Amino acid sequence: MAWQALIERVNALIGARRFAEAAQCLIDAAAAGDRTAMVELADWRIGGDLVRRDLAAARALLQGAAAKRHEAAALLHTAFLAAGVGGQADWPGALAELRALAPHYPHAARQLGLIGQMEIDARGAPTSLPTPRRLSDAPDVVAIPGFMTPEECAYLIEAGRPVLQPSLVVDPASGRTVPHPVRASDAAMFGLYAEDVAIHALNRRIAAASGTEPGQGEPLQLLRYQAGGEYRAHMDALPGEPNQRIATLLVHLNEDYEGGETRFVRTGLCYKGRTGDALLFANVGADGRADPLSEHAGLPVTSGEKFIASRWIRARAFAFPPPAPLVDL
Ligand SMILES: O=C(O)CCC(=O)C(=O)O
Ligand SMILES: [Fe+2]
């Protein structure tokens, strides 16, 4: 098959560190309408480490490959439409594409099943939210009972479980993410590739509940703590960060474990939700600076496994900065 020869050629050029030729080869093949080249180049345009990051180009390439019946490209294109990645958000367009894919692809049908149960408007935003219950003023903490349905919770566990990795923390000295004993858990990030249309709708719900825009959220994360696992006392706000993590929303995805309460260590406020309950707290005070009272811990799990979804919400729109590409193409 021609595409196998193409991918072999591109890989050989990369192996020989002839990156510009590899990129040009892929760009030419994608422009000539080769479906595999379009998907591969979309991946490069998203990653931004080989060629320049260009999410609009990636979205167009995914659309082209989707028109040629490439399943993964078609599904990712629906997600880009829903979240407005690489162009305008188009919720009705995302749903129309999901409906066209649903008869062929279970993942599309599954998302539509979840979305069909949601109370949302024509733009995917929630039309109603459960009433929050204030737990404390200082720190500023509310619980939101029944924030997600058991099906939504199960979906997040199912989607993230296969890609769980040991959790990382930001090292203040280098700004890099590194493994650290403060965080004995596994995490999976629902980033650009994994924030599907259903998960985007959940992120819109998180945005509405926190009075923020969806673009302010860091990728939603699935966290799993096994027996003995914990997240020791910490602040979610980052030292000296200009685009601060102003709030955190945690959703309890299961309840069949012992221990694992979330504890605000300075006041002793302790919370353990049932499946679907959320905890929303501010990490900064009214002046926008880190609030020491927001220091909190995920206490050790003593038996079973604890699953939560966690979203750190920034003061302004947030995106991981693109890497410096190897070739300027
Ligand atoms: O697991 C918990 O209860 C706390 C999680 C947490 O602190 C976080 O995700 O920032
Ligand atoms: Fe935290």
UniProtKB/TrEMBL annotation:
Cofactor(s) needed: L-ascorbate
SUPFAM superfamilies, A to Z: HCP-like
Domain Fe2OG dioxygenase, first and last residues per copy: 216-315
InterPro entries membership: Oxoglu/Fe-dep_dioxygenase_dom, P4HA-like, Pro_4_hyd_alph, Pro_4_hyd_alph_FE2OG_OXY, TPR-like_helical_dom_sf
Any Pfam family matching the protein: 2OG-FeII_Oxy_3
Keyword annotations from UniProtKB, A to Z: Dioxygenase, Endoplasmic reticulum, Glycoprotein, Iron, Metal-binding, Oxidoreductase, Vitamin C
Protein known as: 2OG-Fe(II) oxygenase
